[in-house]
Amino acid sequence: MKKNLLKLLTLVLALVMVVTVFAGCKKADEETDAPTQGSEETPTETQEQPADEYKPSAAQLLNGKEWGKDFTELYDEIGDKVTIDDVQEDPTTGLAYVEYEGKTYELGMDFLSMAMVYKTAVPENSQYETEDDVYAAWWKYYMTRWNYLLPEIPLYSNEYYDVYNAQIKGVDEHPTNPYWGPAKALIDWTSEKTDKDIIIGNTTDLSGKFRYSNFGGSNPGASDLDVDNLINGMETVATTKEGGFEVNKTVVKQLDKVENEDGTLTYTITLNDGLLISDGTPVTVKNYVVFPMVFSSPVGVAAAGKDHQSGMTLEGFKTFNTYDGTEGSGTKELAGLRMIDDYTYSITVSADYANYFYAISYAGLSAYDVSLWIGDADVKDDGNGVYFTDDFYAKEGDKYVMADHIVTASQNTDTTYPYSGPYVVKSYDSADKSAVLELNPNFKGNYEGVKPTIAKVVYKKIVSSTQLEDLKAGTLDVIAGITGGDETNEALALADGSDGKYVYTHYSRAGYGKLQFRNDYGPAQFTAVRQAITYCLDRASFAKTFTGGYGGIVDGAYYAGSWMYKAAVDQGMILNAYATSVDSAIEVLTEGGWVYDAEGNDYVEGVRYKKIPGDIATENDINYKSKDGAYVTTKVGDDYYMPLVLNWYGTSDNPFTDQLMTGFASNDNVIAAGFNVQYTIGDFSPMLDELYQAAVYGYYSGSPMYSVFNFATGFTSAAYDYSYQMTIDPAMYDDYSAYYIKDQADIFWLK
């Protein structure tokens, strides 16, 4: 079974209204012999190779192959036959292997990510006691593989400080953290200010997309997301302060789970009595089913301009997703979603997704005003699943009438449509990007049963350079996410010298700044190159300098405060810290075949080259060149020689880019190892086009150039990890938040 995990993540987060901003197994009693460390460039099946045999990258090896025809996931072939107890761990590297039909296979990222979320049942007589233990073990192997392949290089992870007006009480008892920012935490706070309000600032603009901050895009603005969290709610499954999932008993009277004989999974949810949205209208199951229905339909797709596929895990989704109101276009009913009565609904998850580790998230829906999404249309259920009345699909010409309604309604910033969260939008000023929110009198409480007491929330645009002055002037009560040496020092000095007028809390960031690669293009497609870059960088010093001493580094795509990371450490996780060493960089480059000059002679000095046999070279390999054209792939006989040149794109007016100019581009170790780094400094949208290698924003020229980019990433849920974004499926390479990486260990050759 093939699973599109990135889209699954999108679904999960949409259902519970959590949106991303951007991300040893217990030693067996008896040691088993495991193969030595493999590589991306070695065959999936472990076997001896002549030392001089060319080792293609996965991108080269899979060139021209079709997903689902010429190759398939290793998981599809043997995943159901392997348990966590079958895994052998290389005691030196921590890499994972399994024996299958007398052969040894190295487990790749796609396999491990699938196993992590779909193979967490505790085997009989296992060394593991709980599903959490099994999950952590798979996660450990996955992160070890990630650390080996290095699809990106984490360079700094900040320590964040939030500074408050001390008239805001409860911060000490209910502090913010990476998963629980001020917009969520304030539900536990009180205000001793005269008007009982709180003024929150953010450096990003409010756009007014509050109803569904992710509507029409992938990454909502932080400000819009904050307001979204304040005005939308009554979710059946809540994201907790710790970043996990929990049934919201304020909303849910009863939740039953049934594992069906056909492999599907059914959750039945009964709502509590007396739930009301902000205008006093009683809440029924229609308020919950309307959102996933709309954004699983062609109408919702037309409105958003992209396919959100909110109900993709549900039985009957595929045929409902194509139904356009005409006979034969699909199925009118969404079979996996049922309205049993006014206060009870059920969700049936297809067998492909049913054994998901975080399956409880499937039962998570939030309440919305029905007319917000479907106007005067209605939702019905005659026993075969929920469906829309025909007027939902009405058209004028080729356009859905309801799509226009959805677009307009989604941008509504008054009380035309009522709200389900703790607050309602009282006013929104598009000129100064500010909003005023007031208490929703009908809100019953969050998942802990807590109701807000702060009467008014003012959310406004601020400027970092003047935010402390705003705080002192009383025009701001909270400065969240202060980081960096100078800003942090100034903020702490203000608080420490204020005689208790201001207080602060701090926490480690769940995320990091990074160098990200196109792992299917140029030298960056080779694991040895990415490892060598990491060895060349002094990441600890880089992080210390960039964060002003208020931060550090991580060695994988994880948050050090997450439960799975702590569990994996307890299980003996082995991660290479890539201590700065130009000798180590040269060693891995040499082993990786970067031992030639442009004429195919032995490397002596300057820029290294790698021989690529003519019968395996891709068009991109043949045409690869430096940005300035001084270094090109040369042809000698039937072979090609690729220069070790990295074309890097950094964003302008960015201190991260500024530090990378010396820490990366002109780094003495990088030069000594035989690299040449060339760069362009420009705007964010053109950089995305270069990463996509597509004119999404109208900038891509049609010829790839860049393979290195600087980004930052964050994790807004402990349940979220990068496994969801890793796949070798080429169809996934249309979103920059999915890695451009293929792990050869995931390929199981059928012929």
What does this structure look like?
By secondary structure, the chain is an alpha+beta fold. The chain has 4 domains: 138 residues, no CATH class; 168 residues, D-Maltodextrin-Binding Protein, domain 2, CATH 3.40.190; 170 residues, Dipeptide-binding Protein, domain 1 (Alpha-Beta Complex); 169 residues, Roll (Dipeptide-binding Protein, domain 3). The protein is built from 22 helices and 32 strands. Strands 5, 22, 23, 24, 25, 29, 30 and 31 form an 8-stranded mixed beta sheet that branches. The chain has a 4-stranded mixed beta sheet with strand order 8-21-20-19, covered by helices on one side. It has a 4-stranded antiparallel beta sheet with strand order 11-12-14-13, with no helix packed on it. Helix 9 crosses helix 12 and helix 15 runs antiparallel to helix 18. The radius of gyration is 27 Å and the shape is globular. The two termini are 19 Å apart.
